[in-house]
Amino acid sequence: MYGMLLLLTIPIDASINRTVDRIELNHVMDDGRSVRFTQHIFWRWEGRPNDKWTCVDWRLATKTGHIRRERGKFVLCWREYGRLIRVESGLYDETWTVNDPEIDDRNDWPECRRHKLRR
User: Fold this and answer.
1) Is 8 contained in some domain?
2) Checking DSSP bridges between strand 35-46 and strand 52-60, what pairing results, if any?
3) DSSP letters spanning 13-48
4) Who's near 64: CB < 8 A, 6+ residues apart?
5) Would 7 be classed as within a structural domain?
6) Most buried residue, 22, 65, 68, 82, by CB count within 10 Å?
7) pLDDT, tens only, 80-102
8) pTM, rounded to two decimals
9) Is residue 79 part of a domain?
10) How many CB atoms lie within 10 A of CB 6?
11) Tens of pLDDT, residues 30-63
């Protein structure tokens, strides 16, 4: 009986809710102007003294849902490892690049220093 009551106190909500400063839908192109892959990149604005965007995390767009608007924010939701991940931001960009901005950001901000979405 006490075991059953203890189980009822465990939170059922296994969702992850995060806010980032910008969500980018990035299409990485090859030299022939074909899309190599498409990804969502989640950015945080680093204020002074750096004044630059740093990557928080990224996902291939095939793994995530579609962006939508909720109460003036851009929201992206998807399931990963049995958990619902919901990311919201006030800014949303769609870009087409030859280079991968997430990889470029690793030169200045290594992955080990990022505040990943799943933490």
Assistant:
1) no
2) antiparallel
3) ---EEEE-SEEEEEEEE-TTS-EEEEEEEEEEEE-T
4) 40, 76, 77, 78
5) no
6) 22
7) 888 999 999 999 999 999 999 99
8) 0.82
9) yes
10) 9
11) 987 899 999 999 999 988 877 889 999 999 998 8
